[in-house]
Amino acid sequence: MASQEMIALGSQASVIRDLFAYGQQQAAIVGKENVFDFSIGNPSVPAPACVKESIKHLLDTRESVAVHGYTAAAGDSAVRQGLAEYMNRTYDAGVKADNFYMTCGAAASLTITLKAIVETPDDEIVLIAPFFPEYTVFVHNAGAKEVILPPDTEHFQLSLTALEQAITPHTRAVIVNSPNNPAGTVYSADTYTKLAALLNKKSAEIGHPIYLISDEPYREIVYDGAPILYVPKFYANTIICYSYSKSLSLPGERIGYILVPDCVSDAKTVYTAVCGAGRSMGFVCAPHLFQDVILQCLGQLSDINLYDANRKLLYNGLKDMGYDCVYPSGAFYLFVKSPEPDAKAFSDKAKQLNLLIVPADSFGCPGYVRISYCVDPDMIRRSFAAFKQLIQQYQ
Ligand code: PLP
């Protein structure tokens, strides 16, 4: 016997994982160089040198228990202190060690945060399409309902009018993700200023705070001088969910944090609920070695110039062929309009050419595909003939 809900979830295929697995199978048949796998967001740029150096240093200089032993449930206090000092230096954030809860990446940060703030089954969490597909799973796990804002397919920015209409007395939180997976768009300071004004007004109207959950695994991966912003400076009731999966290329090490700054109303209560939610789901004591590694690598970033070069190569290449692409200002995804309304059918045609691109239906944005460009630039160049052949089928 097992939970029907969990059986359903465990047996649902993820389009991204399916395409990735298909790519591995095809590589064995037609050769790795003939498969153009743009399916998954696995950072292709190596972790910065400080990661390897600090791992070696920690293993060489510390006793086993000081590297592999349990830390406090919320994370090592020296690590959280270091993080607070870094955020204060960089963003003038005014935070302390006790505002941070260390987690196993952004997925855990989000699941814990949602579990902490949801009170009743009527609670609603607003998702802005296109969004990371796992959000719906996390919202259901917290026992809330998702309310989905349709995508603004003109600019892929936030529609404040649509958001205003979506907010009800049951709204608990809005999740934002900038730089965005899958659209690659970045919110400006002006967008956050307007968003804050709306959320303050609506919070007053409905008589309780609407939290802004800022999912920031791509925070520093921005191009052309796009802004890196500290969102609580704009809207006080912001909870930050961060991860080092992308900024330090460490997705397999599962390390990140939740930041509940003191400007959040009832910050202490919310933070205590975060500790409780982490405890209830067994997300305590994030990987110790990597807590210390990130402390030693604060302010470091994988070489995003390599992503930037891929971005230009792919965007310009596909535009020249006639594809309709969203210009990405951050993250490492190119969002492309399917030349036929059914993006799944388009992705299937691409698959016939060993071109693996993800239909965006599960991102809440039918009619588009996501192309991950965290890949070898040679693969991008080799893929152009297949992209050309694909678009010619529609010309
Ligand atoms: N949020 C977004 C927008 C993502 O793109 C991802 C991963 O790709 C996650 C959350 C989960 O990140 P992590 O691997 O750190 O759990």
Kindly summarize this structure in a few lines.
The protein is α/β, with parallel strands linked by helices and 395 residues long. The protein is built from 14 helices and 13 strands.
Q: Please list the strands of the largest sheet in the order they lie side by side.
A: 2-8-7-6-5-3-4
Count of folded domains: 2
For the secondary structure, the number of strands is 13
Report the top-level CATH class of the largest domain.
Alpha Beta
Number of helices: 14
Chain oligomer state: single chain
| CATH topology group of the largest domain | Aspartate Aminotransferase, domain 2
Q: What is the rounded Rg?
A: 21 Å
CATH arch. level architecture of the largest domain: 3-Layer(aba) Sandwich
Helix amount: 40-55%
- Shape label: globular
CATH homologous superfamily assignment of the largest domain: Type I PLP-dependent aspartate aminotransferase-like (Major domain)
Distance from N terminus to C terminus (CA atoms, Å) equals: 53 Å
% residues in beta strands: 5-15%
**Arithmetic mean of pLDDT:** 97
